[in-house]
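Q: For a teaching handout, I want to show students what a protein-ligand complex looks like in token form. Below are the inputs, and the small molecule is pyridoxal-5'-phosphate. Please produce the holo structure.
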Amino acid sequence: MAKSVEQLAAERVHTVPFSGIRKVFEAVRAMEAEGRDVIHWQIGRPDFDTPDHIKQAAAAALQRGEVHYAPNLGIPSLRKAIAERTKIDTGVSVDWQSQVIVMAGANEGIMVAMLAFIDPGDEVLVADPNWHHYKSCAALAGGIPVEVPTRAEASFAMEPEAVASRITEYTKMLCITSPGNPTGCVETRENLQALAELARKHNLIVLMDQIYNRIYYGEGEVAPSIYSLEGMPERTIIVNGFSKTYSMDGWRLGWTVASPELTQALLKVRQYTTVCVNTFIQHGAAEALSAGQGCVDDMIRAFAERRQIIVDGLKGIEGVTLAEPIGAFYAFPNISRFGASAEVAEYLLREHGIATVSGSVFGTAGEGHLRIAYSCSTDECHRGVDRLKQALAQLRK
Ligand SMILES: Cc1ncc(COP(=O)(O)O)c(C=O)c1O
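A: Here is the structure, written as tokens, with pyridoxal-5'-phosphate included.
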């Protein structure tokens, strides 16, 4: 008898789930088609248009005929700009020719890193709760994701003792996301020091996803990076991108920065996957990094204003607690007093038109929480907070 597609699919396909976030998107779309008013707290991307000068640079490149394959690593002007940006962000000098790869989004950087460094059976440490991508990419590469539970009381940091206790002879990689998705929390420099020590001691590769490093409300311009610490540029793969900082998520553009040796392994995989990123959009991205950064400042100011509304609003709701987010555009309140997080999220969406993502989607330790993405207008933030207050009050009764 002929095999079903389910049976034909490679084993690895069965190791990963469909995205729980996508399901919320689909439900929201159906509700809006019925004319329901929905608060959009489910979307993990900025709501701004891409700044015009960036679009113009990409359009001009297209008009000039920049329509052929780019170098596998990316166009030189963009790689130079990424190297300069990395120096600003981390204080570490980066050679643009041998250490930078332009990727089709941070997502490609993560997948390529897993394919380049994870063998079947290798263990990959990821924080719980976390954006699911590292787990799924590690699993698709044949690796074993090992979750490190984090706690709201410790600001969802990857606590060194919790990490250390999960390191085995098979541990190959430590994934760090800071600022984090879904929590908005930031790893302090002191914590990163302790994690760096573990990485050096156990010869781990560190995947440092710092895509939100400039959407940061703490001291200084950017969130701290483990790449800045002694002995870490040799073993760290930085993943970053344009989606969040420049509101360019649909462009599918990001990058990796790593040592020349690590970059060679990444490059080999890249040569057999996407080959290179779309050429003319790379010119837009080069403009994004090289031109004045006023557009980024404006977006961050807008996020800071929204964050304040959400944080103040959540603190004002009886029964809700919050580990204060210091970066990104997420808040991850504890709503466990009101029930299981998937049920509360479903209730808020169906009964009150508030779209959030259940914390359980991000791992076991996310249970009891909701992810609120405040990438919506201040008006929507205000309306959302008022609606949430009423909805939870009804549930309390
Ligand atoms: C932590 C984190 N890294 C990476 C990405 C994806 O980035 P990109 O659009 O550059 O692939 C996301 C998207 O939500 C994210 O939250």
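A: Two things your students might notice: Residues 44, 105-107, 131, 177, 181, 209, 211, 241, 243, 249, 254 surround pyridoxal-5'-phosphate (CB under 6 Å). The mean pLDDT is 96.
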